[in-house]
Amino acid sequence: MACSTEFIEFVCAQLDGVGIIRTKKMFGEWMIYIDEKPIVLACDNLCFVKMLPEISDLMADASTGAPYPGAKEHYILDIEHRSTAQKVVRALLPLIPYPKKKKK
Asked: Which of 29, 27, 37, 34 is nearest to 12 (CA)?
């Protein structure tokens, strides 16, 4: 099941204030960019973030799962808890690289 537009709007509202938010629909699911970095992957009305050791303490109680078949295990971000979600995103911002530019 793909994410609903209402869910993506809710995620963006919850993350408002952490940076410039942009969304991109990809294969029926969504990537949420913060300050042009791909931070949150939204699939089936769940938010996923990369499992990096630097955020393991913040995500100690989080569930994990694969956002789509064949994907690496990710943390499931509890987007309902705004302050925690924003802390996680702020911690990820310096760790996630900018996407590579496509060569023409």
From this structure: 34
